[in-house]
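Researcher: Sequence recovery benchmark, item below. Answer with residues only.
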């Protein structure tokens, strides 16, 4: 192959590739380490060098974590909080997302900016006043009060994702259904909703993951009814290393599942053109 026919890679593109590889390793290496250690024997967690795969493959570390004091109750609390958050966020966020995607109304862009800007507030600004309010109302240390907090945190993302999902469904299809005799509500249920269901499922999963991983508000707003991230964080300084790896893997799994389902909609949200 002569020099003229060789593929040319510009320095800028090569630098981009290097940066992408470094970023991928930065993200994947901790996930690999947590996964390998979580399925190794407890004694294997302290061995060096670390194997590429668990040797031998063992559930001893995961069972040790699951049988630790308070873990199963914390898992149940996390599931209940995430479930309530999911229902509330979708019930409120999906109609808001549909309105943003379908209707032109005064202040629509300002509303979108306000929705996004709510995520700029530090959680501590919301959590501490809410903790005082919940104590006065007798709602402190409750999974429902924590779910309300998680709903407030998840709503901006839920609205943005659902608006992106509904925007990807052609409005012409709903209008065609209405010309054939459907009411606007029937056109939504029979045309728009089936096409938007995969995206709504992804938004639902995203909301679940936000609640599942949230730790700061859970630490402030709960004491006895802590979720799993709050429990793991509270016992982090006193827990052995196998407990930390197994806890990290247990918290990581929903996020990995979420990424498999929602990546297409995140790309759309970020402006990538999809086929």
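Model:
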């Amino acid at each position: 192959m002569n020099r003229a026919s060789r593929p040319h890679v510009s320095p800028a593109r090569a630098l981009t590739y290097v940066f992408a590889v470094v970023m991928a390793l930065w993200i994947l290496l901790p996930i690999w380490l947590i996964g390998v250690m979580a399925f190794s024997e407890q004694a294997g967690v302290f061995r060096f060098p670390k194997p590429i795969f668990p040797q031998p493959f063992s559930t001893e570390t995961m069972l040790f974590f699951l049988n630790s004091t308070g873990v199963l109750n914390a898992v149940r609390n996390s599931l209940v909080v995430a479930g309530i958050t999911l229902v509330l966020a979708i019930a409120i966020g999906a109609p808001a997302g549909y309105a943003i995607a379908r209707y032109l109304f005064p202040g629509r862009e300002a509303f979108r900016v306000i929705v996004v800007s709510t995520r700029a507030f530090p959680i501590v600004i919301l959590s501490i006043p809410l903790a005082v309010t919940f104590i006065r109302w007798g709602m402190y240390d409750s999974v429902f009060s924590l779910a309300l907090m998680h709903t407030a945190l998840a709503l901006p993302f839920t609205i943005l994702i659902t608006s992106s999902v509904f925007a990807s469904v052609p409005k012409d299809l709903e209008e065609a259904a209405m010309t054939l005799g459907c009411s606007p509500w029937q056109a939504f249920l029979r045309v728009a909703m089936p096409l938007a269901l995969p995206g709504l499922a992804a938004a639902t999963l995203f909301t679940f993951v936000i609640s599942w991983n949230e730790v700061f508000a859970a630490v402030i707003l709960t004491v006895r009814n802590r979720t799993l991230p709050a429990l793991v964080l509270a016992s982090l300084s006193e827990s052995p290393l196998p407990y930390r790896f197994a806890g990290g893997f247990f918290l990581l799994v929903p996020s990995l599942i979420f990424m498999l389902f929602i990546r297409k909609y995140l790309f759309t949200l970020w402006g990538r053109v999809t086929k």
